[in-house]
Write a structure and sequence with these properties.
Elements lengths: L5 H9 L3 H22 L7 H12 L4 H13 L7 E8 L5 E8 L2 H14 L3 E2 L9 E10 L7 H10 L4 E4 L3 E6 L4 H10 L6 E8 L8 H16 L3 E6 L5
Antiparallel strand pairs: 1-2, 1-3, 2-8, 4-6, 4-7, 5-6
Helix pairs in contact: 2-3, 2-4, 5-8
């Protein structure tokens, strides 16, 4: 889940239990299969596959697991039938939620997403009902403890590579790009030997809302937990700053 305290949320997600890690590997495995089907198994000529491999490595997926996934997808192209879908809706207290999925069964996924919203007192809306509250951006997070480079030098590398914005927080650096420039900026940082916590296209709320009622927060967390547990769900975004 992407939220307000970006670095803390990403780090917490990576430190979750083995079940959560297994879910992340399942999602990334599907993304590898789709990328190979669309552009072939060679990452040198398949930018989308390069992006997924970078995501896999950021999530500590072993190299042999990545390679097996690529070979399996290349040998079974006809069996790859995953499709992307996005759902939008409202959680308790009017919070906005966007759910991105990758599935081989749209009916199953739609039912599971609706069930998660319902169990947490929310509801799925129509396409576009909340996405206008978010900006689609490339977002790169760098852990300060893992980066020896001066902030100004790092900023200039990012901006020269095509980044839109650079900010320094207490424990991390954040680089914002257009969705189309995220890969180029990430690859330039990789060339410079800069380790990244994450580098992905995400949905950033234009404004965050605070939910003060404890019961509403519990219900919202219920929705997010159920969605995070679903293997068909890739990413979940909310504009609640308290999560």
């Amino acid at each position: 889940m992407s939220g307000h305290s970006k670095f803390a949320n990403i780090r917490a997600k990576k430190e979750k239990n083995d079940a959560a890690k297994g879910k992340a590997f399942t999602v990334i495995g599907r993304e590898i299969a789709v990328a190979v089907k669309e552009g072939g198994p060679n990452p040198d000529s398949n930018a989308k596959l390069r992006d997924v491999i970078a995501k896999a490595k950021a999530n500590n997926m072993p190299n042999d697991t990545i390679e097996r996934g690529i070979k399996k997808a290349a040998g079974n192209l006809e069996s790859v039938n995953y499709v992307y879908n996005t759902y939008e809706g409202y959680g308790p207290a009017g919070t906005a939620i966007i759910v991105k999925t990758l599935t081989d069964n749209k009916n199953r996924t739609a039912a599971n997403v609706r069930s998660a919203f319902t169990k947490g007192g929310g509801n799925v809306g129509t396409t576009g009902c909340v996405s206008y509250m978010f900006d689609e951006k490339g977002q790169i997070i760098i852990d300060k403890e893992e980066c020896d480079m001066d902030a100004d030098d790092l900023m200039m590398i990012a901006l020269d590579a095509g980044a839109e914005d650079f900010s320094e927080e207490e424990d991390s650096f954040e680089i914002i790009t257009s969705p189309d420039s995220c890969s180029a900026v990430r690859e330039e940082l990789e060339k410079q030997g800069i380790a990244m916590v994450s580098a992905e296209v995400t949905m950033i709320p234009q404004n965050y809302v605070s939910v003060t009622d404890e019961e509403d927060l519990k219900k919202l967390q219920r929705i997010l937990d159920l969605l995070d547990e679903d293997d068909d769900v890739q990413d979940v975004y909310t504009n609640c700053e308290d999560m």
